Amino acid sequence: VSRCVYFSNMASFSYSAPAISDVEAEMEVAALTEEEKDQIEQDLRVGNSIEETDDLRESGIRNLGMELLKIPVDEKIDYLQALLRVPDLVEKETNSLKFLRGHQFDAKKAARCLVDYWTTRKELFGDKCFLPMKIDGAIHDDFETLHIGAIQLLPNDENGRSVMYCQPGLAIPSEVGIYSLLRCAFYLLQVASENTTTQAGGLVGICCMRGYGFKNFDRIHAKKSFRLIRECVPFEL
After folding, report:
1. What is the spatial distance between Cα 60 and Cα 101, in angstroms, rounded to a whole number?
2. Which residue among 39, 97, 128, 143 has its CA within the 20 to 30 Å range from the CA of 134?
3. Is the CB of residue 102 less than 8 Å from the CB of residue 113?
């Protein structure tokens, strides 16, 4: 049974993910087509095709700054507020290199993702978005939702990438709160983004639909979750 890791730079807390038997694993592999196997191998390859050098990092940071200037003020207001109120936190939790690595050093895409990240962070957390993304910080009031285990971080894979496990059947959005679930997802994605291997090589996602039913589905939650994953995190899933 794998053990998940919830916290970064804090006391450890673990939650056991359901085990998959060898027979179930063999049946799943046997059902794959050759094309699907090739795609899986491709997805599991680590790193991007760009060789990271000092010159690339310096030019990337400079170009990202220029792209940020091009974004209209009304579209980056939450990012600007964060820069004014908690500049050290912005640098620590959303430094430029993190977003550049996740977008193959495409400064335009990295700048847009950085702005969208802070817009979403403010939408989900309100003024708590200016607190550190820790259990005793921004996510403090959502500890019970986090403890449900519907979203977890497991130990890194053999290549060092972060692994996120999701079992939506463990949570009922109408009971625990849509935004509480989203905040937990955001927090765990933030923890995963601290992994430099994940920044360049992406996040490994595992989804178990055991126990999932109509009561677990919420259209707004599904829509916002998709946007969070696709637009606001500095790495690929």
Report:
1. 9
2. 97
3. yes
How many Å apart are CA 26 and CA 192, to the nearest integer? Answer: 29
Distance, in Å, from the CA atom of 56 to the CA atom of 37, rounded to the nearest integer, reads 34
Q: Which of 123, 139, 137, 237 is nearest to 188 (CA)?
A: 139
CA 123 to each of CA 79, 129, 183, 186, 217: distance values in angstroms, whole numbers, following the listed order: 12, 8, 10, 11, 21
**Contact status, residue 152 vs residue 15, Cβ threshold 8 Å:** yes
Rounded Cα–Cα distance for residues 191 and 189 (Å) = 5
Residues 29, 186: Cα–Cα separation, whole Å? 31
Q: In whole angstroms, give the CA distance from residue 152 to residue 7.
A: 10
State the Cα–Cα distance between residues 67 and 59, nearest whole angstrom.
Answer: 12
Please name the amino acid found at residue 190. Answer: Q
DSSP three-state, residue 140: helix
Six-digit token pair at 218? 């919420």
3-state DSSP percent of the chain in helix, strand and coil, to 5: 60, 5, 35
d(CA 30, CA 141): 44
Going residue by residue through the chain (237 aa), what tens digit of pLDDT does each one get? Answer: 333 333 333 333 344 445 567 787 778 888 888 887 777 666 666 555 578 899 999 999 999 999 999 999 999 999 999 999 999 999 999 999 999 999 999 999 999 999 999 999 999 999 999 999 999 999 999 999 999 999 999 999 998 999 999 898 888 877 888 889 989 999 999 999 999 999 888 889 888 888 777 777 666 766 776 666 677 888 776
Using CA atoms in the order 36, 40, 42, 48, what is the torsion angle rounded to 10 degrees? Answer: 140
